[in-house]
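Q: what does this look like with adenine bound?
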Amino acid sequence: MRIDIITVYPEMIEGFFNCSILKRAQDKGLAEIHIHNLRDYTLDKYRRVDDYPFGGFAGMVMKIEPVERCINALKAERDYDEVIFVTPDGEQFCQSMANDLSLKQNIIILCGHFKGIDYRIREHFITKEVSIGDYVLTGGELAAAVMSDAIVRIIPGVISDEQSALSDSFQDNLLAAPVYTRPSEYNGWKVPDVLLSGNEAKIKEWEMEQSLERTKRLRPDLLNK
Ligand code: ADE
């Protein structure tokens, strides 16, 4: 899968994609992530990508022209399944949306900045608007990074033990059970006996009980989904 991220601040997220599982996914050829600097697509001699809003409002607004030129340049190379704009007033991002998007071939994520983007971009180029939560960030870059991480890590083969992505919290609308490692006792704090028993059926049963108990206690809303 390929993700193209369009931003005015590539340096905000470049490092993020060069670490850990996202780097491994790219090294293995399972994901391609390309970050495009919107300023490379403007014809303005000062590389300006924003302008004053009509109506006398405060702040600056991202212009149509560089966004159009960037999206058209990408679309000339390949077809895109979605052109996503990350924005606090978009549809709430969640695990099932990450699962759906991980099945796509090519997606574009456009990051907003300044006061906002000219609304005509949203009307004419964007196929999906996504928020990562009910709070306002300085720009869409962190939202694009969060979404790309959640999408790429569940592409088959990215995590070596596929089971470990499937048993994450929120797959099945349940929170994951607790995990432990050696030593089995530390400061008198013991790992639950069942995990040391070697009895796979009992361990599975314990894991499900724990998932249900934690979900009921911490996120009861998930049980109604
Ligand atoms: N841009 C600014 N805030 C955002 C949010 N909460 N989600 C997505 N994009 C954003």
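Strands lie at 2-7, 32-37, 50-51, 61-62, 82-92, 106-111, 116-117, 128-131, 185-186, 189-190. Residues 200-218 form the longest helix (19 residues).
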